[in-house]
Amino acid sequence: MLKLIARRLALLPLILLAVAAITFALTEISPFDPVDAYVGAESGVTPERKAEIAHARGFDQPLHERFGRWVANVAQGDLGTSVVAGGQPVAGEIAARMSASIALVGGALVLVLVGGLVFGVLAAALRGTFFDWLVRTLCYFNTAAPSFWVGLLALYVFSIELGWLPAGGTSDPRAVESGGIDLSHLILPMVVLAMTQYAWFTLFVRNTLLEVLREDHVQFARAQGIGEVAVLLRYALPNALIPFVTLVGTHLSELIGGTILVEAIFGWPGLGGLTLDAALGEDIPLLLGITLCASVLVVLGNLLADVLYRVMDPRVREAAT
Amino acid sequence: MSAGGALGASLPVGGRRMADAVRRWPVSMQVAAGVLAVLVVVALLANVIAPLDDAAVDLDRVLEGPSAAHPMGTDEVGRDLLVRVLHGVRISLGIAALAALGAVAVGALVGVLAGTLGGRADAVVMRVTDVFASQNHLLFGILLLVLFRPALGGAGAVMLAIALTHWPTLARIVRGELMSLRERPFVAAAVGGGASRRRLARRHYVPHLLPAVGLAFVLTVAHAIFHESAYSFLGLGLPAHQASLGNILNDGQRSLLAGGWWIALFPGLAILAAAMTIGTIAEHWREHLHPRWRSELEL
Question: What ipTM, to 2 d.p.?
Fold first, then answer.
């Protein structure tokens, strides 16, 4: 197990290097002029001043030297300086937004897991009934409906029409202690983000559960006279959940991508909002930094999934050793 | 009705037989094909049905709810929303189809390269594909949009962003199919019988790969519609004045506070209709062709 973790962690820098090389190459191919992005399109900057900026920031050096220097800097945790944040370090900008993102993604993940388990198990237990049909139909709609559209409708219904929940931000600006995180502000973005992943997980739980219920050990448990509820929860569900673990890594990435749209609608100040600010301000260093961070998260998520898979399924563990 | 037409092509030719085949489809498939046909006709004929006039501003009729005169209401400068949504379907479906075509072309090319070269070259190509595949579509697409929008313009950059984020699935499918085809007895028999490379490709490889590629194309179109509208909604896609579904949704977000829910509702319904019909048709097509592709094609 430790060997596996060590081997996969050793691979992490290689994968990051590949991601860095691809993004760097794309930046080079693109007609994008970093000096123009830095000074802004409208300001009347003389060519001499542009050359100075290019020299000061190292834009005029040959390709391999810039790439080498950039990789060396990234390895030391220096992701460059952000344009939209007025020259602040990219790493600091990303770190400052991290906690809001973790609150949002973590909350959504918990909602997906709990909601998907409850409705997936119920749908499997009540297969063929109206409830099962309802859950499947809602999931089907949910997969096809764009998350940002659902977010807009939820915003209209729950904050504008009904006034139950705040429309955006992290706290009430009129409150005495504004600046902290008010949980009522988290509910809408969290639920909308959860809905992007909720449908596939519910259907996944339902379908794998129905497959496992046909297996011999479940029939044997039934033959022993164990109640249907216990059969479902103790004998079938744990086996049905094993393949799910391998999917967590992929869907964690989807969840992180989904924050870009959700945070744009609800004005949540996490990494998704930072990504949008960077994109609108054509802030390439910041965008590259966020892309690299997302890659690290995906690799770590996949590693966690592999480790959990081995912990949960003895067959895989024994086959590997 | 591109998907329905392609499905029909695999059935016996002839109008009456086609009609018989349609009658044998499940009801969900018939409904989906009908709705998709309407959407495609709307996309093709939007300029004939209701020419778009961006200057048709009517400040006496700003933000009016749905009525007989304006079935979908009016927007914040008094333009008819139905006309704008019709053109939104045209723009968004067109861009999505072209972007999916790009993704299929890149994916097929990489897949054929990896599958035919084999060995170390195959390993290198597939590892690079893995790196692309591990990137989040939306995030990586935004990076591509920002980099290439100045040169390609909004629509071009959106197509490039979608094509360059969605090809890895295609490459894996094509490579996998090619590898398994090469091991099949009928291919070995053809090689043993002295068939040329061209004949092998034309008689054996292409006819077997085409349905999988076509199906992946249809599924990619559904994804592409979502991505185009998401980018435009964020203000990173098409120029703000163009009536794409994402841009209308962006207007809708602004109008929500003024109570204009219909501007956010109707363009989203159009996206929902397109995604659901394409999903349903792809599902039936998949089962019709090869039940075992089920898991491989979960894009």
Answer: 0.83
